[in-house]
Design brief:
CATH superfamily of the largest domain in chain B: HAD superfamily/HAD-like
Largest sheet of chain B: 7 strands, mixed
Helix content of chain A: 55-70%
CATH class of the largest domain in chain B: Alpha Beta
Number of domains of chain B: 6
Radius of gyration of chain A: 25 Å
Number of strands of chain A: 0
Radius of gyration of chain B: 33 Å
Shape of chain A: elongated
Distance between the termini of chain A: 73 Å
Distance between the termini of chain B: 52 Å
Number of helices of chain A: 3
Oligomer: heterodimer
Strand content of chain A: under 5%
Strand content of chain B: 15-25%
CATH topology of the largest domain in chain B: Rossmann fold
CATH architecture of the largest domain in chain B: 3-Layer(aba) Sandwich
């Protein structure tokens, strides 16, 4: 049963790592803007427009 | 010709989506409504940014007036605005009201394509802010702002820095505290389970370990997460009154002490699980209470409407000066569309001031030379020269804000704080009586455990939770009906009001549904001619007159001329037509009525279009519903022309006051309050600002939430005014719900106290009782609030 001492120590250590990760995430501002990144990801890569191809976007 | 025109009507501007005018602008095989839209399109197409139009149809906004940014060349102003600067780059955050769709995000994040000196730009869509990093050696701040402005995204740079004020609004510290408390609670629960399930003698060694671990987890919870409760309790005790934090701090302290003593002396498992659970739930309650509206600001004053700098004339040379540094005697140079920031005498020019910001009246008023122009007016004609007679902060209207006698001093006591007093007394009496009893029995151990247990179990935790949960649920119901209340405390104020004061213009009348009336008679032919002339103009008044005329056929216009702030001149079918203000008309025609759009066809005066105020819909039924429960009154800044009509709607005992100055409005509110009334004020313009701030519950009414609203407790969309009685009733129901939940909580507390006074409160009972009562309360408040909202027809 003495293995429990080791396991309890491990579990607390791991939980602390996650807590630290959460602290880091909040402090670095990752949760400040919950909306824009969701929109941003839907943008296409820039398309280089050809002079002849312009009508493509008028539709 | 006519046929083609009809097709025109169906076509929309490629950039902004508005109807195309008669003379449309064509560029790149696309139709645009005005030069401004073409300009933006040109910039975008030159920089390969036409994707802007791919994500949304017509995402642009029509450019309004031209703003001057000379003041951004002043280093002192620049340093005020920027966030960060090093040798290479500067970072600045702007608030841009025009941000409204995904195309805006796309375009503003591709600014680097327009100008290489811009390194990157990042949008926060909800806050409508963009953070730009740029090389200040290659591009000046002024150039940067002008670039933004040229593509239709003009930043709002005002005296009250919206960006910097908002940055601290998200309480990160609280979130971190919740994280720590939740982390500790989870672990403590885990380590408490073996104790509750019973440990065999073989496993007793672990009890010791778990006890110490629990104590270790309690330390950050008490001293980091619960710190605010101790400081708040201490300050309130210093001021010799008891708030809700006082008993809470006591309980946290007792829980911690008892846990520490039991663990150190190995006399029991302690109450670490109750302690951590309590703090976690309390912090959650606090978090729910904090509601932030990113798009609305309640604490705005004139400063968020005023520009940061203004052009002055010194020896005939234009020089931008920060508004705070304006002095008496300075000469101001106010261009079309700019705002007069301080009371000033008109020296040169034709003043047509749009005082809508001040009075809610949108029609420009003419001010003759030599008279005082009050701060807050916006010039709608050519440039003016003015001389400052009062500094900005002491001007007639802005001075309203600097009145220090506002209600700030008087503490608003909410239900929680007022009941906390009695609660604390009751708990102490029970605790001391039971301690005394056990001491008389010569059982000092039981006396100690009874004392601590009573304090632990009689926790007002439920009280601290039911209020935020109920009131924030109410806030979100209000939110859906376009009624934005500042915070949960304000809801309690709303429920307590017994007096309602209305402003008239902009509050009871609508600014949106403009109704026009023509003084004379026009035949169809003349209507057509006027419409043909007006459709070339983008002025809001021209557009509303055009709408009013409802003409579908138009004539071609020649010799068209638009005089800024005055009106239009044109020739149709060889007839000369004037439409505009009285100054524009040929000299031989003089009329007494100065306002309105006057029409002259072939030097024959036809009459004028006048904006008629329209009452908000459902005004009558609103007053019907309110008049039995509240004292109603009207404070209007206007002449009493509507008194007769208002008297038919409002009950006889309602007081209708007209021609009230902003200061009189404020005084009336103070008088009512001195009589012991709780006053609710509904207003819109800057002239109501003092009264709104002084009232117990000030509601700013607006037709567009993004518009300026004076400082207030709540912002209400004009369309939802009819729900006002329902809003008030729901807030009252909310307070009833809180009281009922208090009764439920007391019931649970009695069970706990029954065990506690006997000195036999086992930690497991406390650990179960607290979550159960909490869950009951949260479920009850949620269900009851929804029921109340349904009853009041709000969902």
């Amino acid at each position: 049963m003495n293995i429990l001492y080791f396991l309890v120590g491990c579990s607390i250590l791991m939980a602390l790592v996650f807590l630290a990760a959460f602290f880091w995430a909040v402090k670095s501002g990752q949760n400040d803007d919950m909306h824009t990144p969701g929109v941003r990801i839907l943008f296409d890569d820039p398309i280089i427009l050809d002079k002849n191809d312009k009508s493509h976007f008028t539709e | 010709m006519e046929n083609k025109d009809k097709i025109n009507d169906l076509q929309l501007c490629y950039h902004c989506g508005e109807n195309l005018p008669h003379i449309k602008h064509t560029f790149d095989e696309k139709d645009f409504c005005c030069v401004g839209c073409v300009g933006v399109y040109k910039i975008l197409s030159e920089n390969n940014l036409c994707n802007y139009y791919a994500y949304n149809d017509a995402p642009g906004k029509r450019l309004t007036s031209e703003t001057h940014f000379e003041y951004l060349d002043e280093p002192s102003i620049v340093t005020q605005l920027i966030d960060f600067k090093n040798q290479e780059s500067t970072i600045i955050t702007f608030y841009i009201p025009a941000i409204h769709c995904s195309s805006c995000i796309w375009l503003l994040e591709h600014l680097y394509k327009i100008n290489e000196a811009i390194f990157s730009s990042r949008i926060d869509f909800i806050k409508k802010q963009v953070t730009i990093k740029y090389n200040h050696n290659q591009i000046s701040l002024r150039k940067l702002v002008e670039t933004l402005s040229n593509i239709g995204y003009e930043p709002l740079i005002s005296l009250q820095d919206v960006v910097k004020e908002h940055s601290g609004s998200v309480n990160k510290a609280l979130i971190l505290k919740i994280a720590v408390a939740g982390f500790c609670m989870g672990n403590v629960m885990l380590f408490s389970f073996p104790e509750y399930f019973g440990l065999s003698s073989f496993e007793k060694q672990f009890q010791y370990l778990f006890g110490w671990l629990n104590l270790a987890f309690s330390i950050p919870v008490t001293f980091y997460c619960g710190k605010e409760y101790f400081t708040s309790a201490l300050t309130s005790l210093k001021h010799k009154h008891v708030n809700l934090d006082t008993p809470l701090a006591l309980i946290i302290a007792v829980l911690f002490l008892r846990t520490a003593i039991e663990v150190i002396f190995d006399s029991g498992p302690g109450f670490a699980d109750t302690l951590t659970g309590l703090v976690f739930l309390l912090l959650m309650g606090k978090w729910v209470k904090q509601r932030t509206y990113h798009h609305i600001s309640f604490d705005r004053d004139y400063r968020s409407y005023f520009p940061i700098a203004i052009t002055t004339l010194k020896d005939g040379i234009e020089k931008p000066v920060p508004i705070n540094e304006l002095e008496i005697g300075d000469r101001l140079w106010i261009r079309n569309g700019e705002l007069v920031p301080a009371d000033a005498i008109l020296i040169k020019g034709e003043a047509w001031m749009d005082m809508s910001f001040v009075t809610g009246e949108s029609e420009p008023t003419h001010i003759p030379q030599g008279e005082i122009v009050y701060a807050g007016g916006r010039q709608t004609a050519q440039a003016l020269e003015l001389e400052v007679v009062k500094p900005v902060s002491q001007s007639y209207l802005t001075g309203l804000w600097n009145n220090e006698h506002y209600k700030n001093q008087q503490e608003k006591q909410n239900f929680n704080d007022s009941i906390a007093k009695y609660f604390s007394v009751a708990v102490f009496v029970i605790a001391f009586v039971s301690t005394g009893y056990w001491l008389l029995q010569n059982d000092s151990h039981k006396a100690w455990s009874a004392f601590t247990a009573v304090i632990i179990v009689a926790c007002p935790c439920v009280l601290a939770l039911s209020t935020p949960f109920t009131l924030s649920a109410i806030l979100s119901i209000f939110d859906k009906k376009n009624f934005y209340v500042k915070n949960t405390d304000a809801v309690e104020q709303l429920a307590s009001c017994d007096n309602i004061v209305f402003d008239k213009t902009g509050t009871l009348t609508s600014t949106e549904n403009v109704d026009l009336a023509f003084s004379g008679i026009l035949n169809d032919e003349e209507k057509k001619m006027i419409a043909s002339l007006l459709r070339n103009s983008s002025h809001p008044l021209s557009r509303s007159v055009l709408e009013n005329l409802q003409t579908t056929h138009f004539y071609p216009v020649t010799d068209y001329e638009e005089k800024v702030g005055k009106g239009l001149i044109g020739t149709i079918n060889d007839k000369k037509i004037y439409a505009g203000s009285i100054d524009l008309l040929p000299k031989d025609i003089t009329k007494e009525v100065a306002n309105g759009v006057h029409i002259v066809i072939e030097s024959q005066y036809k009459g004028y279009f006048m904006v008629k105020q329209t009452w908000r819909k459902g005004l009558k039924s609103l007053v019907q519903k309110l008049k039995n429960k509240f004292d109603l009154s009207i404070l209007s800044g206007d002449a009493d022309k509507d008194e007769v009509y208002l008297k038919t709607i409002f009950p006889d005992n309602a007081t209708l006051s007209f021609k009230q100055t902003p200061h009189q409005k404020l005084d009336t509110i103070i008088q009512k309050q001195q009589k012991g009334n709780k006053v609710m004020m509904l207003g819109d313009g800057l002239n109501d600002a003092g009264a709104l701030k002084q009232s117990d519950f000030g509601i700013a009414i607006t037709d567009n939430i993004n518009n300026f609203t004076p400082g207030c407790d709540a912002i209400l969309n004009g369309k939802s005014l009819k729900f006002l009685p329902n809003f008030i009733q729901l807030s009252k129901d909310g307070l009833t719900i809180i009281k009922i939940s208090f009764v439920i909580a007391t019931f649970y507390n009695c069970i706990g106290v029954y065990y506690a006074v006997q000195g036999t409160l086992y930690p497991l009972v406390a650990a179960i009782l607290m979550p159960i009562s909490t869950i009951t309360i949260i479920i009850f408040t949620t269900v009851a609030t929804r029921w109340a909202a349904r009853k009041n027809n709000l969902i």
